């Protein structure tokens, strides 16, 4: 199923763009685990803020460190943050969806009110609160973004989940003794999968932006850990003098966020086409 969906995404130009960008991101992140053109800790006080050259492909920063090497190493940190954030928000969002479509009306109504109340809290405020006991860390970004995006996912997916939960086939499954977890996995999740994929892809893109913003505020990735946000935060003060050092990480963040959003839309279209084709085939066989 995954291979057929990826083939459907690849057939569209925007899908090919997103797949190529995401594949390059993953490949560079894996390579950076074993190799970078220069050591991250190699500095040269005589060559600070150098322009791109054969020895430093994207130039150097204010300590004389190689910008390309730091961006390569930062790709693995950002990839880890995106994977953890998507996993956290997906699990948290599905838990909330389960509560919000519960057959216990008191529990369902209370869950809806709580989600509506909590969704008004800004992600930055959650991160600031978490940073008090935890300090600047990747965990702050993952928990703050996963919490906020999980709430949003639950709110958006609730109508489709509620429709599936009240359908005749779910009633039949429950009457035959199916447990709640099995109904969720086999009937509700497949029906809200397009919504889930789009929301999770948006969460992935927003997590990349949030990492940059929270690291700039000093509550994201700690100092000394490479990330695209770290590269932006250390060079943005000198944008008027050395704009190239800000341009590279900013360009990477922009392209990756666009690719994640486009990938989510293309995957949703591929899933919808698959469902429509399956429904048409079922209708033909039923005649």
Main attributes of the structure:
287 residues, single chain, mainly alpha
Terminal CA distance: 27 Å
What is the C-alpha radius of gyration, as a whole number of Å?
22 Å
Low-confidence stretches: none
Please tell me what the overall shape is.
globular
Mean pLDDT value: 88
Largest sheet, in brief, is: none
What is the count of β-strands?
Answer: 0
Helix content: over 70%
Class derived from helix and strand content:
mainly alpha
Beta content comes to under 5%
Task: Provide the succession of SSEs.
Answer: HHHHHHHHHH
Count of DSSP-assigned helices = 10
Topology:
Layout: H1 2-10, H2 13-32, H3 67-100, H4 105-118, H5 123-134, H6 138-165, H7 168-175, H8 180-217, H9 228-235, H10 244-286
Helix pairs in contact: 1-2, 1-10, 2-3, 2-10, 3-6, 3-8, 3-9, 4-6, 5-6, 6-8, 7-8, 8-9, 8-10, 9-10
Give structural notes.
The mean pLDDT is 88. The two termini are 27 Å apart. The chain has ten helices and no strands. With 287 residues, the protein is mainly alpha-helical. The radius of gyration is 22 Å and the shape is globular. 75% of the residues lie in helices and 0% in strands.
In summary, what is this structure?
With 287 residues, this protein is an all-alpha fold. It has 10 helices and no strands. Helix 3 (67-100) packs parallel to helix 6.
């Amino acid at each position: 199923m995954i291979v057929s969906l990826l083939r459907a995404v690849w057939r569209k130009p925007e899908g090919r763009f997103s797949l190529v960008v995401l594949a390059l991101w993953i490949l560079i992140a894996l390579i950076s685990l074993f190799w970078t053109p220069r050591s991250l800790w190699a500095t040269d006080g005589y060559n600070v803020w150098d322009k791109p050259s054969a020895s430093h492909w994207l130039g150097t920063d204010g300590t004389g460190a190689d910008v390309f090497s730091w961006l390569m190493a930062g790709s693995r940190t950002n990839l880890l943050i995106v994977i953890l954030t998507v996993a956290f928000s997906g699990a948290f969002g599905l838990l909330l969806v389960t509560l919000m479509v519960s057959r216990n009306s008191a529990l369902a109504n209370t869950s809806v009110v709580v989600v509506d109340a909590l969704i008004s809290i800004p992600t930055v405020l959650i991160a600031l609160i978490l940073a008090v006991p935890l300090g600047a860390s990747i965990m702050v970004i993952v928990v703050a973004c996963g919490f906020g995006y999980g709430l949003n996912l639950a709110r958006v997916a609730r109508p489709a989940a509620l429709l599936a939960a009240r359908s005749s086939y779910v009633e039949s499954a429950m009457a035959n003794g199916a447990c709640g977890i099995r109904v969720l996995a086999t009937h509700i999740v497949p029906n809200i999968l397009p919504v889930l994929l789009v929301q999770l892809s948006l969460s992935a893109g927003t997590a990349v932006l949030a990492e940059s913003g929270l690291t700039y505020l000093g509550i994201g990735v700690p100092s000394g850990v490479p990330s695209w946000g770290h590269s932006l935060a250390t060079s943005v003060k000198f944008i008027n003098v050395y704009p190239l050092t800000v341009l590279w990480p900013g360009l990477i963040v922009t392209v990756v966020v666009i690719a994640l959003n486009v990938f989510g839309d293309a995957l949703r279209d591929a899933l919808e086409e698959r469902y429509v084709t399956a429904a048409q085939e079922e209708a033909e066989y039923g005649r």
